[in-house]
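Subject: Sanity check before I submit

Could someone independently write out the structure tokens for this chain? I want to compare against mine line by line before I put it in a report. The sequence has 402 residues.
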Amino acid sequence: MPAKAQLLSKDRIVHPLEDLRPLNKVAAAALTALGDSLSDDKVGEAVLVPHSIKVALKALKSNLGDDAANRLSVLNDFAGREGVIVKPKGLELQLAGGVMPLPDDFAPCLILDASGRVRETYSAMEAAGTLKRLPGFTADYSRLRVHLWSRPASREAMKDDDARHSVLHAAATLIASQGDDEEWLIVHPKERAGESHSVTEELRGLVSNHERLSFLHWGNHHGTNQYRHIRRVIVLGLWRQPDTAYSALHIASGGPLDLATDGEVMKAMKAGEHRHHLLQAICRASVRNGTDGGQCGECEAYVIDGLRDAPALLQETFPGASVTPWLPEGEPLPRGVSGATMAIEAELQATGGKVSKAAICARLGITGEALRKTIKAPEFVEWIDRNGLEVTTRAFALRQAA
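---
Independent answer below. Compare away.
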């Protein structure tokens, strides 16, 4: 990107003021002014960080020491540049921007990046006129089979003991079903010091011959061929960042400041980052063993995440791959899906091989629109296929033999 995406919280800006003010009123006033410029009524507006803030940082170092100055060292990069005021849900105000820009004489530069096709940052650069997209080539992912279990498996979700045990036991059962020698690559959130659990250690404890498991955490999921021989991948939750991080990426890519908090722009940036991370993570494995004809290596990927748009994101990321719902045996269906499946089973027993959608709506007391949403749920699609049924325009019916 033309610059580095950066966030700086208001809390961090004002934190040293109590100690600094008695020692250096001028430096304290500069930090106070910057902090005051970040307010709730100005979210989405641009603010200029003055060059003079560097003087305040030097005073901070001389009066309060290296640690205090290091906490605000990013202000050196923001100095003389505009950022946008943003506010993450439930947190304090932040300044989002692009810092440490590439030098003007850096271009021309040829960028070879597999994520160029899927990452929204490149589209922002293209729109800003800093990038020209050359004719590209899209690999054939028809030998990649992606299985999607639509349930939360993020870092936050896995803090819950029951949820974590459910996910890890399902993963261990899946691993065991492929024999004791098959190697697996597990992509997971980075574990933090002080957490009361360890996803990696818990999964190792559930799997025989656990030396065959390789673990790769988000943030370290690119730039290596070490796992290209592994044919099976499990992705434990997508990598999520605060919405404000996507604002910073937009700005760092050269996007207009006045669109840095635009809902549609942020939605596109977030989807692009999901595609980018999925591509990089799953392509650490045997997918990257492509043929001369551009066909990817044979691979099975199991993705566990509750993101509603996950099926579409996976199809966009891996054109030609099969993306199918996956529900581990013994796992309960979501309440809405479960109610519909029980109603269909009951009606089919009463009527034979076909039941109208209107009858199911009447039995459940729901609207046609509500039923249409249920029908699109990956768990429902998987249940229909597993039970030999088909969905027609007006009914559910037993699938006819070819």
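---
OP: Matches mine. For the report I'm noting this point. The two ends are 53 Å apart (CA to CA).
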